[in-house]
Amino acid sequence: MSTADFSNGPACPIPIANYPNVLMAHGGGGKLSHQLIGMMIAEHFDNPALRQLHDGAVITAGQTQLAFSTDSYVISPIFFPGGNIGELSVYGTVNDLTMCGSVPKFISAGFIIEEGLPMEQLWRIVQAMKAAADRAGVQIVTGDTKVVDRGKGDGIFINTAGIGIIPSGRAISPSGAQPGDRIIVSGEIAQHGIAIMSVREGLEFETTILSDCAPLNGLVEAMYAASPELHVMRDPTRGGVASALNEIAESSQCGIRIVEQDIPINAEVRGACELLGFDPLYVANEGKLLAFVPAKDADAVLAAMRVHPLGKDAAIIGEVITDHPGTVVMKTSIGSSRVVDMLSGEQLPRIC
Amino acid sequence: MSTADFSNGPACPIPIANYPNVLMAHGGGGKLSHQLIGMMIAEHFDNPALRQLHDGAVITAGQTQLAFSTDSYVISPIFFPGGNIGELSVYGTVNDLTMCGSVPKFISAGFIIEEGLPMEQLWRIVQAMKAAADRAGVQIVTGDTKVVDRGKGDGIFINTAGIGIIPSGRAISPSGAQPGDRIIVSGEIAQHGIAIMSVREGLEFETTILSDCAPLNGLVEAMYAASPELHVMRDPTRGGVASALNEIAESSQCGIRIVEQDIPINAEVRGACELLGFDPLYVANEGKLLAFVPAKDADAVLAAMRVHPLGKDAAIIGEVITDHPGTVVMKTSIGSSRVVDMLSGEQLPRIC
To answer: What is the pLDDT of residues B4-41, one digit of tens each?
Structure first.
C-alpha cells in the first residue's frame, strides 16, 4: 500500500529461496550478517562514507572531520555481571567512535521500552548511562523514548548514536593494514560473551566472570601519544577477534598470522569456553581493541598501553603478511597451523 | 549484579508507588511521557544541549554548528497507506534536524529485526529508505543490524539518528516565541495518525487516507529565503498540534491563541476523527510543521510556503500573546474559547 511502489524495482539481492525470512544468524556478526549487510543494505545505500565499512562513518562538516556511528543494544539479560545495557550502550558507541580515530563527544539515546518494565530498572539503567558518559567524557545530548506493547519487545532495547571529532593528521581505516604491521590486543579476550553466557546457562565459577565493558578512548589517546601511526583499530565485539581480523584481512587484502599462545585469556574464561563449547576467538568483547601498528612502533605502543589500566595485559598476537591475502591463519599451541575463518552462523545471540 | 551499585544513589524520581512499571502512555507523547523524560531522563543527563528540549541538540564541532537528533520508529503496521516504516524513519529524523534550523546531511540507521520477518519486506523497507534519503538530499552513512528472537520484537523497529549543519545566523529555539508572532501550520493536520488508525480499525473511506509523511527541509529553505527571522519551528508528530503548541507555550513562557476554523483539515480526516472519537489537534502528523514568525514577515513566509508542494495549504492559525503564559487557548467554531491542554495519557499508541 506504500505510495512508492517497488514491485517493479530490483529484485531482493538476498537469495530468497534460501532465506525467505530473517534468521537469528542474520544478526549474529558472522557470514549471514555480512551477506545481509553487504548485499542488501550497504550495497543499496552505497556512498563513500558507508563504503569504508568502518565501525562508523567518517564525514566532513565545515572544516571538521567527524566520526558518526550507531548501534542498537538488545542484550539479554539487561543486567549482567559487570554492567547493564545502559553502560554497554554508551561504551559501545564511544568505542566505535574511538576505533575511527576520533575523540568521542556527543551521544544520542533512543529507548524502546516494553510495557511493564519495572520503573526501578529503567532508573538504574539511566543512572548507569550517565555514569558511563561521565567516565568516557561524553555528553548525552538528545534522545527519544518509545513504549511498545507487552510481548512486542523484551524489557528494553537502547540505540545510541555518537559523534566524535577526528584530530587532523589521523588516518585510521580497516583497509590500512600493511605487511609487517604488528597486531596488538589490549587485554584478555572473550570476557563479555562468557559473562553473559554464564548467567544464561546458570554456570557458577569460583569468582564471577565479569563483562569487560569499558570505554577505550582514554587508552587510545595514550597509544596515539606513543605513535601517531596507528594503521587500523577495531574493537572485536560481535563475532570476536576472529571476525574482526577476517574483516581487516579482507578490507586490506593482506594475510594475517596470529599465534595462539600469545593471545591473552583468563583461565576461568578459557575453562568456561571449553565447558560451553565456544571458541574464545569468536566470543564478544566489549572493552578490548585490536591495533595494527608498524613494527618499529610496536614496542612503544605496547609499553604505553601497559601502563593504562585497560591495557595492562596488552600483547602482540601476530603480524600482517603478504601471503594468503584475505585469510587469517593461526599457529596453534600444539604447533600446527589452521585457518581462522569468519563465523558462519551465529554463536552467541543477543550478546550486545 | 552491576559493578556500579546504585542502591545508595538517588531514589527514582518517578513516583514508583503510582507507576511501578512503564505504561504505554509513558511513550505516547503526552503528560506521562513528559514526566518520564523530564523528571528521569533529561534531569539526570542534564547538560546545556539537552536542556534546550528541542527536536534535536544543537552542538558545536570545530567552527561548525550542528544539529544532532535521534528517533526510534516502532510504528504498527510497518506498511501503511502513504508509506512504510523505512521512509518514515528517514523523514522523521530529517524533519527533526530541519526543525533545529539545520540543513540535514547524514543519517544513521539501526535495525532491530524480529526473527522471521519476511526478507522481501526488509528489502522493500531498505528500498524505501534509500528513496527517502535521495528525496531529502541526505546520505545514510552508517548503520547496525540486530535480530531478536521471535516474540521479542514486532517485525522491525528502526532507529535513525542524523546530523545537520546549521548555517550561520540561524537561531531557532522552542523558547524563541515572542508576543505578536503569527503561528503558521504548513498544511492539513492529523493525516498520518488517521491513516494508521483507519488501517488498524479496518475503516474504509471513499478515498484512502494517506499518511502525510514527507521531508520538510525543502519547504523550510523556501521559508528562510522569505524571512531569516523564524523564531520557532516544530513538527507536530506524537501528541499532535496541541502538544507541540503546549510545549512551545511552556518553553517560551508566553500565551498562545489559535482559531479553530483557521486550522486546515481534510473533510475525510475530520469525519474519521469523529467516527473514531479523536480530537484532530492531538493526532500525529509526519509531514507538517508549525512556524512562529514575526507578524511583519508572516505574509511573505506564507506566500513562499504556498508555492511549495508541501505548503500549498499553509495557513495562519493563531498568534502569541502576553496573556496566560504557558497556556494554549482556542477560539472554537461556535465562538466560545477553551483551553487546549497537553494530552494526558496516550491517544494513539505506536503511531511512529
So the answer is: 556 667 888 888 888 999 999 898 777 888 888 888 98
Going by DSSP bridges, is the β-strand pair B83-84/B79-80 parallel, antiparallel, or unpaired? antiparallel
- Distance, CA of A254 to CA of A250 (rounded, Å): 7
Within a 10 A sphere around the Cβ of A244, how many other Cβ atoms?
27
Q: Residue B6: which of A2, A119, A124 has the nearest Cβ?
A: A124
CA neighbor of B213 nearest in space, from B109, B348, B87: B87
CATH number for the domain that contains residue B155: 3.30.1330.10
Do A255 and A181 touch, CB atoms closer than 8 A?
no
Once rounded to an integer, what is the mean pLDDT over residues A142-171?
Answer: 95
3-state DSSP of B299-352: HHHHHHHHCCHHHCCCEEEEEEECCCCCCEEEECCCCCEEECCCCCCCCCCCCC
Question: Is position B347 within any domain?
Answer: no
Q: Is A232 helix (H, G, I), strand (E, B) or coil?
A: strand
Evaluate whether residue A74 is within a structural domain. yes
Query: pTM to 2 decimals?
Result: 0.95
- What number of other Cβ atoms are within 10 A of residue A118's Cβ? 14
Q: How far apart are CA B302 and CA B297, in angstroms?
A: 9
Would you call A115 and B24 a contact, using CB atoms and an 8 Å cutoff?
Answer: yes
**Terminus-to-terminus CA distance in chain A, angstroms?**
35
pLDDT at B128: 97
Query: Has residue A322 been placed in a domain?
Result: yes
- Do residues A220 and A170 make contact, with C-beta atoms less than 8 angstroms apart? no
Q: Alpha-carbon distance B115 to A40, whole Å?
A: 17
Contact A45 B128 (CB under 8 A): no
β-pairing, B139-148 with B103-114?
parallel
Number of domains in chain A: 3
One domain for residues B281 and B139: no
> pLDDT below 70 — which residues of chain B?
1-8, 52-54, 345-347
Give B297 to chain A, closest Cα distance, Å. Answer: 30
φ/ψ (deg, to 5) at B61: -125, 110
User: What's the domain range around A200?
Assistant: 182-339
**Mean pLDDT of all residues in chain A?**
92
B66: β partners: B59, B165
Q: How far apart are CA A337 and CA A271, in angstroms?
A: 23
Q: What is the phi-psi region of residue B48: left when phi exceeds 0, alpha when psi lies from -120 to 50, beta otherwise? A: alpha
Q: Which of A20, A80, A143 sits opposite B119 (nearest CB)?
A: A20
**Widest pairwise Cα distance in chain A:** 62
Number of residues written out for chain B: 352
In chain B, what is the greatest distance between 2 CA atoms, to the nearest angstrom? Answer: 62
Same structural domain for residues B202 and B335? yes
Same domain, yes or no: A113 and A223: no
Given B114, B132, B165, the domain boundary residue is B165
- Beta-bridged to residue A144, according to DSSP, are A110
CA-based nearest distance B317→chain A, Å: 28
My answer on whether B40 and B75 are in the same domain is no
What's the angle, vertex CA B25, arms to CA B113 and CA B93, rounded to 5?
50
Residues A287 and A211 in one domain: yes
DSSP A21: B
Task: Look up the ipTM and state it.
Answer: 0.94
